[in-house]
């Protein structure tokens, strides 16, 4: 068994390809089920965000695993492997671990250091747990990754900006109306830097419509309220989820069927449904513009695949900010503080994780060796019992204890040492030597998956 990740992200693929690869929340269980039916995949987790689609797996063989996971990605995107392959990356074992740890720390994000990815990784694990697609290996890996992500944000300055793709998008949207008025409120204590988030008061007097009430929608509600939005409206397919945001941020809830009417009133629309089809077509937006008396409309599309038809850019009075816009803006972002510190932390955590993983690999060999010794001890004690029938219980206990202690002492050094040596690269060879020297059963598994110490999600 070995660890594997196959995926594509904002660095390896254009937004149009990422759109095809995006896995809506409702489709993740089916993808996990399909992976479970693949011949080489034992465990799997799907991580799909606006920056990436990645499949983490524990696989029987490297080449078989890459083939099965890549095949699943081609089915998701509806493309041929030859067309998708240039955008895919594959990481195996140590590199797979390092990649996940870097992702969860925000090192691999479009906005370096963003905090939203931690929750997205946690959600991906929870879905996999609910679908029983993870076992001890990926459970332990992801729990460790979440702990590493928390360490990065609590022990370094990488997350001090508190920024996210949402906050940057809202900042750009607020800029569509020009500079803040002179009487706008100043920054509140603890506000996020203006370079990454809208200033307090940037949306004063504005009406904001949120389309979608998932994690991105909830974050958007917090950001626009902090920016001073006067009115907040939430439209969502499921009223209960919209109501949770409304209760928290003092918003109005409307059904999606009333979306067209609300478009004629809102100043800013933030859409993040992740639906498979367009939510706001050019025709729908054009109809709304006809009822706006010339008032401009700003659309912020944070969904992948996109919710808003790019053709709306052709309409006068409409500004569209989408993930492609954000990608272009963030390509020139300033260096984030403490990146090197986080990289050092990640390298240390990867090394520690791999040491534990290598040590776990020899566990079946140690168990098999001790089981073999225990069987020999039993046989010899039975033989002694037959040959020494006159020993009383007290004397027999002395003999039995001596035989067991001899066996334990002989086994102690090799079993302890092989576990120590296993933590080093190439440590598997010591376990192989034990199996060969003691003629241990060849069907004894050479690798076992043992979870790390439980980590709080």
Automatic annotation (TrEMBL):
Domain of life: Bacteria
Molecular-function GO terms, alphabetical: glutamyl-tRNA reductase activity; NADP binding
Domain annotation Tetrapyrrole biosynthesis glutamyl-tRNA reductase dimerisation: ranges: 342-440
The EC number(s) this enzyme carries: 1.2.1.70
Pfam families the record matches: GlutR_dimer (PF00745), GlutR_N (PF05201), Shikimate_DH (PF01488)
Catalytic activity: (S)-4-amino-5-oxopentanoate + tRNA(Glu) + NADP(+) = L-glutamyl-tRNA(Glu) + NADPH + H(+)
Record bears the keyword Oxidoreductase: yes
Active-site residues, Swiss-Prot/TrEMBL: 50
Site feature Important for activity, where: 99
Residues involved in NADP(+) binding: 212-217
Other notes: During catalysis, the active site Cys acts as a nucleophile attacking the alpha-carbonyl group of tRNA-bound glutamate with the formation of a thioester intermediate between enzyme and glutamate, and the concomitant release of tRNA(Glu). The thioester intermediate is finally reduced by direct hydride transfer from NADPH, to form the product GSA.
Family membership noted in the UniProt record: Belongs to the glutamyl-tRNA reductase family.
Name of protein: Glutamyl-tRNA reductase
Organism whose genome encodes this protein: Candidatus Protofrankia datiscae
Name of the gene encoding the protein in the UniProt record: hemA
């Amino acid at each position: 068994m070995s660890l594997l990740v196959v995926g594509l992200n904002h660095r390896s693929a254009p937004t149009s390809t990422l759109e095809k690869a995006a896995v809506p929340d409702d489709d993740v269980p089916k993808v996990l089920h399909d992976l479970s039916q693949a011949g080489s995949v034992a465990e799997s987790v799907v991580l799909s965000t606006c920056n990436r689609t990645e499949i983490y797996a524990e696989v029987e063989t490297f080449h078989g695993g890459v083939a099965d996971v890549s095949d699943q990605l081609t089915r998701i995107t509806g493309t041929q492997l030859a067309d998708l392959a240039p955008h895919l990356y594959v990481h195996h074992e140590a590199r797979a671990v390092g990649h996940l740890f870097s992702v969860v720390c925000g090192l691999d994000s479009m906005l370096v250091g963003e905090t939203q990815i931690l929750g997205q990784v946690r959600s991906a694990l929870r879905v996999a747990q609910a679908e029983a697609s993870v076992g001890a290996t990926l459970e332990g890996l992801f729990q460790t990754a979440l702990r590493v992500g928390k360490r990065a944000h609590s022990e370094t300055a990488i997350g001090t900006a508190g920024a996210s793709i949402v906050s940057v998008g809202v900042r750009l949207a607020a800029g569509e109306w020009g500079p803040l008025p002179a009487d706008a409120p100043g920054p509140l204590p603890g506000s996020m830097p203006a370079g990454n988030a809208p200033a307090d008061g940037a949306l004063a007097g504005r009406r904001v419509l949120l389309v979608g009430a998932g994690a991105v929608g909830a974050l958007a509600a917090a950001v626009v309220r902090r920016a001073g939005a006067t009115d907040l409206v939430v439209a969502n397919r499921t009223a209960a989820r919209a109501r949770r945001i409304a209760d928290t941020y003092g918003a109005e809830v409307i059904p999606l069927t009333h979306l067209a009417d609300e478009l004629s009133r809102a100043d800013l629309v933030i859409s993040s449904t992740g639906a498979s089809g367009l939510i706001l077509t050019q025709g729908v937006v054009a109809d709304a513009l006809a009822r706006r008396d010339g008032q401009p409309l700003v659309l912020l599309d944070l969904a992948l695949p996109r919710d808003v038809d790019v053709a709306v850019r052709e309409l006068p009075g409409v500004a569209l900010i989408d993930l492609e816009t954000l990608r272009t803006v963030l390509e020139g972002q300033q260096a984030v503080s403490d990146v090197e510190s986080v990289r050092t932390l990640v390298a240390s955590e990867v090394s520690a994780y791999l040491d534990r993983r290598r040590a776990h690999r020899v566990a079946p060999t140690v168990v098999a060796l001790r089981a073999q010794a225990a069987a020999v001890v039993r046989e010899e004690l039975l033989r002694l019992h037959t040959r020494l029938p006159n020993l009383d219980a007290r004397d027999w206990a002395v003999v039995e204890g001596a035989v067991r202690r001899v066996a334990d002492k002989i086994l102690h050094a090799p079993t302890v040492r092989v576990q120590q040596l296993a933590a080093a690269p190439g440590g598997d060879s010591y376990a192989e030597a034990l199996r060969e020297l003691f003629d241990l059963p060849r069907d004894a598994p050479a690798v076992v998956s043992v979870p790390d110490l439980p980590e709080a999600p």
